[in-house]
Amino acid sequence: MQDDLETGKKVLRTLNENGHQAYFVGGFVRDFLLGGRSSDIDITTSATPDEVTRLFPGTKATGVKYGTVTVFLDQHSFEVTTFRTDGESKDARHPDEVGFTRSLEIDLERRDFTVNALAMDADGTIRDLFGGRADLENKILRAIGDPERRFREDALRILRAFRFVAKLDFTIEPSTFAGIRAHRDLLEGVSGERVLTELKYIVRSPYAAKAYAAMAASGVLDYLSPISAGVRFLAVRGPFKLSFEEFAALCFMLGDKKIPPHWRFSNREREAIRKIMDLADVTEADPFDVLLVYVNGLDLCLAANAVNRAIDPARDQEDAIRAMHAALPIHKTCELAFKGDDILASTPLRDARVIGGIIDDLIYQVITGRLQNEYTQLREHTLSLIRRMGERHDGRN
Ligand code: ATP
Ligand code: MG
Fold first, then answer.
1. Which residues line ligand 1 (CB under 6 A)?
2. What is the Cα–Cα distance from 241 to 239, expressed in whole angstroms?
3. Beta bridge partners of 81
4. Count of alpha carbons within 13 Å of 48, Cβ hemisphere only?
5. What is d(CA 342, CA 141) in angstroms, rounded to the nearest whole number?
6. Which of 94, 125, 200, 343 has the fewest beta carbons under 10 Å from its own?
């Protein structure tokens, strides 16, 4: 586990030995001091991207414009970024220009929150310019510098604040919170893609409910209308453990029932959310039955149930769904003891639509327990169906 830390130290030392300053920074240091581990390791250095590239055999220019080079070493990868100063931003999202600097202090100053601006060198010594360690101990999220200016520079920081509340169980410090309130309208300029990314972080984090409450209290939901009703609801009625798709389905059901087009869900996500909404809608008042459980499968049924249950705990049907699923004699068409090929072999039928209809009926008979999933019974049933179809047909002529 410490492997990546040790390898990271090698990266720092290589940079140091070649005359450059280099530190671990950001989430990695924060999570390290909290006793946890980050998935990604950020390194900040006085070396330029070119200098970094020359020093390591395995590198990739991942964000040249922003000074980032990914260094690959001993099966690990590190985002190595040159000390940067971010210029003014006109669109409240992207700095108009970034400049490189040889000063750690200037690089740390551009970062969003004090707990994200701690730097650690190869010996484990921490550089703490903004009181980040104290804030870490007190679980306080505090913007660096003037909060209003910082959120004006980059409105994504507003959503990042809630991300860290959700992840770390932090409380947003009052003037930082006031800055969020003051500039929450700038969220309108944040792309749907980025909103979605941050929302996913929040929903999947352990203290999501705390973030929902902070979001509701800060007024940001005025500018996140698709999830506004849902988050307000969850802030009061939560916490519920919901997947992101369940969260989205719940929000949209409590909202205007639409999936916002500009949020750039993947097709798979969009379809999953749509299915959960549809099934939750169908089963809101009516109980799940074997047919619904068979057709939709266990996972989708549980997801729809999770949404209904969050809206009203009295609607919980999880035990019944699981029992019905466990008792299903078949889970897919190919498990029928008498199926398409058998119909072709033992009857004159060739019309695919008619055969499909018969198979649907066989499935219905089997999963509702009217017939056993057994070759002879299903064959008899099929032949008698065909006889009746023939009689009806003859009767018409
Ligand atoms: P996580 O553990 O969720 O990845 P993180 O703090 O590592 O959290 P990243 O998005 O990986 O977050 O960013 C790495 C670091 O870059 C942050 O800790 C922060 O110092 C800086 N940073 C990232 N985004 C911004 C931003 N929008 N404004 C200012 N600084 C930022
Ligand atoms: Mg990170």
1. 26-27, 38, 40, 42, 111-112, 116-117, 154, 156-157, 160
2. 7
3. 44, 68
4. 6
5. 67
6. 125
- Residue carrying structure tokens 């020093």: 55
Distance 38 CA to ligand 2 centre (A): 7
Q: For position 302, what pLDDT does the model report?
A: 97
Q: How many A from CA of 51 to the centre of ligand 2?
A: 23
Do β-strands 140-141 and 59-63 pair in parallel, antiparallel, or remain unpaired?
unpaired
d(CA 97, CA 85): 9
**Model-level pTM?**
0.88
* Paired tokens of 26: 């950001």
Number of H helices, E strands in the chain: 18, 11
Mutation pick for ligand 1 pocket among 82, 91, 111, 157 (CB with most ligand atoms within 8 Å): 111
Q: DSSP assignment of 183-228, as one string?
A: HGGGGGGS-HHHHHHHHHHHHTSTTHHHHHHHHHHHTGGGG-HHHH
For residues 352 and 168, what is the distance between their CA atoms, to the nearest angstrom?
57
d(CA 372, CA 376): 9
Answer yes or no: are the C-beta atoms of 169 and 214 closer than 8 Å.
no
Which residue's CA lies nearest to atom 22 of ligand 1?
Answer: 111
Q: Which ligand is nearest to the CA of 38?
A: 1
**pLDDT recorded at residue 89:** 66
Spatial neighbors of 35 by CB under 8 A, at least 6 apart, are: none
Q: How far is the CA of 85 from the centre of ligand 1 (A)?
A: 15
In the chain, the N- to C-terminal Cα span, in Å, equals 79
* 8 Å CB contact between 311 and 250: yes
| Six-digit token string for 198 | 């941050």
pLDDT tens for 206-253 read 999 999 999 999 999 999 999 999 999 999 987 788 999 999 999 999
Hey, which of 37, 38, 42 would you mutate to test ligand 1's pocket, going by the most ligand atoms within 8 Å of its Cβ? 42
Closest to 297 in 3D by CA, of 367, 225, 247, 229: 367
Give nearest CA residue, ligand 1 atom 5. 27
Query: Ligand 2 centre and the CA of 47: distance in Å?
Result: 21
Is the separation of the CB atoms in 301 and 293 below 8 Å? yes
* Of residues 355, 360, 377, 248, the one with CA closest to residue 295: 360
